[in-house]
């Protein structure tokens, strides 16, 4: 290591202004984003007893320090520390976050912004950042924002998320099971709803836990009231539902389905008004028409030759039509042209003070869930594309358990939903569609999707692979914060990207009981002490089980 000055040079006090703390170290190596500093171990020990929690934390991993460059204060985050025996100090890697102007009389920071205009030189003194400095650094500017918690380690500095920047470039909320991910997601969405009561938010809820949380300011749709018309599916989604064959047989079945589906759609009077009717056009048709056309096509063939694909398709269509579990989508009542009413209902057009739709897919048959999510996601995207010349109504699509629908594997079922969500991630912002991904397994997401998210809210992640995945997706300046991801407490998060001025560690606010999702962990010891009425519980449960209703 190159020779560095001893710690006796670090005790020079600041020039005369309100900040009375002496220098705690010195910069000795400078690079574009990450630099090296030498801290005075004795000075850090002294600061550790200060009443200000920010000063007391000075010099620790994840804390902030400041350096004066001309008339500005440069703020940096401490990423790593190592003991330096030669100089009796501590060598630290620091990452520059941004800069603020220095007030002439008080020496305080104001007008803080991201990025560095002018770098310091080796030998520049380093000072601790106080709670008053933190207030200035994290003070929200005039942009529309929501407050979600307090900045660590302060007790009163509020953490603000800039809504337009966060939604404009998508966001991801990550965290292992039990870290408070669902409550934090509900908190962020509630704050957005409170800010924009005429907004348009669609949330896919795979566990049925958000319905109760948004009963007051949203609409909840499940198998009982969703009434999703089957004819809104495009050809790819039809194939996922009706085609069961694999390999070469699948191609044959899909070709037959395309031909018969187009014929069924063309029977509708609407088809006459459409110049170019395709197999993807959202035109109503009767399932009975589809089976009749399949039968007629089969009748044209010589007996015993090539009728098997037609039989497979016809049997599957009739099976789904007769199965009560699929009635929310394939009921004979869903034949009318209700496209306008359905889109108005799901997209909250108008919102009337209830801007969020919770789509509870928990009671749907698992083999069709991904198709339902695919249809809803594609409707959001297609609506945005075809409404480009109209007054804009941006839509936020929030996907809980996102790794289910955007898996890293490009083979197997559910590829339609993977493709549309990947497309929204890449192109959505051009058309006013924002994507919010919530997942506990970021490493299982399709490659590239996480890097499309401009804002990342990362709660504690226990898995090494997940941590590495998130680090790869986050910007350079946030690296010091990322190392603390495994050490975060419940309902704490690192937020970085477009939605915040600089990366921050946040303790989320408490959410009122009636606004929380139904996702709390059961107390085994408490519940296992209770007994009685087991026969009635079983009777009611089995009735619901058999009726496939909740």
Automatic annotation (TrEMBL):
Domain Helicase HerA central, chain residue ranges per copy: 146-380
What Pfam families would the database entry show?
A: DUF87
Please give the superkingdom of this protein's source: Bacteria
What PANTHER family has UniProt attached to this entry?
HELICASE MJ1565-RELATED
Q: What is the protein's name according to its record?
A: DUF87 domain-containing protein
Q: Which organism is it from?
A: Sphingobium amiense
């Amino acid at each position: 290591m190159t020779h560095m000055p001893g710690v006796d040079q670090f005790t020079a006090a600041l020039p005369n202004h309100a900040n009375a703390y002496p220098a705690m170290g010195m910069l000795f190596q400078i690079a574009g984003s990450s630099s090296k500093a030498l801290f005075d171990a004795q000075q850090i020990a002294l600061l550790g007893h200060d009443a200000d929690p920010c000063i007391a934390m000075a010099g620790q991993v994840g804390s902030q320090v400041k350096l004066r460059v001309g008339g500005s204060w440069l703020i940096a985050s401490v990423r790593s520390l190592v003991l330096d025996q030669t100089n009796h100090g501590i060598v630290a890697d620091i990452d520059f976050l941004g800069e603020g102007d220095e007030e002439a009389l008080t020496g305080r920071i104001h007008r803080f912004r991201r990025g560095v205009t002018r770098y310091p030189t080796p030998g520049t003194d380093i000072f601790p950042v106080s709670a008053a400095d933190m207030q200035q650094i994290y003070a929200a500017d005039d942009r529309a924002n929501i407050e979600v918690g307090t900045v660590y380690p302060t007790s009163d500095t509020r953490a603000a998320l800039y809504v337009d920047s966060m939604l404009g470039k998508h966001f991801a909320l990550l965290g292992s099971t039990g870290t408070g991910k669902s409550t934090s997601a509900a908190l962020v969405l509630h704050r957005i709803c409170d800010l924009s009561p005429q907004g348009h938010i669609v949330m896919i809820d795979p566990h049925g836990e958000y319905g109760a949380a948004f009963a007051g300011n949203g609409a909840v749709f499940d198998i009982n009231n969703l009434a999703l018309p089957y004819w809104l599916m495009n050809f790819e989604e039809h194939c996922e539902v009706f085609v069961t064959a694999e390999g070469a047989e699948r191609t044959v079945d899909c070709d037959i389905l395309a031909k018969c589906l187009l014929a069924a759609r063309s029977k509708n009077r609407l088809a006459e008004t459409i110049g170019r009717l395709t197999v993807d056009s959202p035109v109503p048709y009767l399932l009975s028409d589809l089976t009749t056309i399949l039968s007629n096509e089969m009748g044209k063939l010589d007996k015993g030759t090539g009728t098997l694909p037609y039989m497979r398709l016809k049997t599957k269509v009739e099976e789904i039509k007769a199965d009560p579990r699929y009635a929310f989508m394939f009921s004979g009542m869903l034949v009318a042209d209700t496209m306008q009413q359905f889109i108005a209902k799901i997209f909250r057009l108008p919102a009337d003070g209830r801007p969020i739709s919770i789509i509870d897919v928990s009671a749907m048959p698992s083999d069709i869930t991904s198709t339902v999510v695919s249809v809803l996601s594609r409707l959001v995207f297609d609506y945005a594309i075809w409404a480009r010349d109209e007054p804009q109504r941006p839509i936020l699509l929030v996907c809980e358990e996102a790794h289910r629908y955007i898996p890293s594997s490009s083979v197997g079922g559910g590829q339609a939903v993977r493709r549309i969500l990947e497309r929204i991630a890449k192109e959505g912002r051009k058309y006013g569609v924002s994507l919010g991904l919530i997942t506990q397994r970021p490493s299982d997401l399709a490659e590239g999707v996480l890097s499309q998210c401009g804002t990342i809210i990362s709660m504690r992640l226990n898995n090494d692979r997940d941590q590495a995945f998130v680090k790869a997706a986050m910007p350079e300046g946030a690296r010091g914060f990322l190392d603390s991801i495994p050490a975060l407490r419940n309902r704490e998060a690192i937020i970085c990207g477009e939605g915040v001025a600089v990366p921050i560690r946040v303790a989320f606010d408490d959410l009122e009981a009636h606004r929380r999702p139904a996702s709390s962990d059961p107390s085994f010891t408490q519940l296992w002490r209770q007994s009685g009425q087991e026969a009635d519980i079983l009777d009611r449960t089995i009735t619901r089980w058999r009726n496939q209703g909740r």
